[in-house]
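Journal club side-thread
Mid-discussion, someone asked how the predicted structure for our own chain would compare to the paper's figures. Pasting it here so we can look after the session.
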Amino acid sequence: MKLRTCIIDDEKHATETLSYDLRECFDEQVEILFTSNNPVEGLKKIRAEKPDLVFLDIEMPGLSGIDILELLEDLKVDVIITTAHQEFAIQTVGTKAIAYLLKPVLPDELEKVVHLAIRNRQKTQEQKRGDKIAVPVFDGIEFINYNSIIYIKSDGNYSEIYCTENRKIIASKTLKHFEEMLPDSVFIRIHKSYLAHPGFITKYFKRDGGEVLMSNNHVLPIARNRREEVVKLIQNNH
């Protein structure tokens, strides 16, 4: 599902440039609902269209970006501030703004904030489903309770998900995808190839730099730089 997006900026060249960059680089992830160079009309359209994401300029005549942020408090929408002045971005702390972009917008910075917005939307959708996550598989999408996941193993562009009741699911997403999707409070990256649920760790071995025995009797390695964090988590979960 694409991120439904709009752009509000009183400078026409700014909306045109950002629209072009989004379509060129993120056409599969982002759908631009509308752009507006009139902040008052833009606010009306936001309320009517209810986008997922708004790129919002700060300095605009009649209605500033700060004013619009205050008027969007009742809507479930993420906002990315676009401004030529970094000091204006500081004024948005504590609002619905999840990030800001300094003009002229650099491609790397745009990529970062778009991916941040996508992750935010995914987490919001997962929260609506409760504890279930969407797992892309060979023939569709499977919804599973993440509390049933013992650990996830990287397999190139795929992931092997090991669940309770001896279930194994091959997912067509990378381990990094699941690391970003799943709550940090529940899962830990114990190794470059493994993401584990500490609640399913039954034993810690000091040998070979550190290993853990999972509830399904699988033994997983621990990266040396993760050992201290893993041991602390095990102690907190048992």
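Post-session note: The first helix runs from residue 12 to 26.
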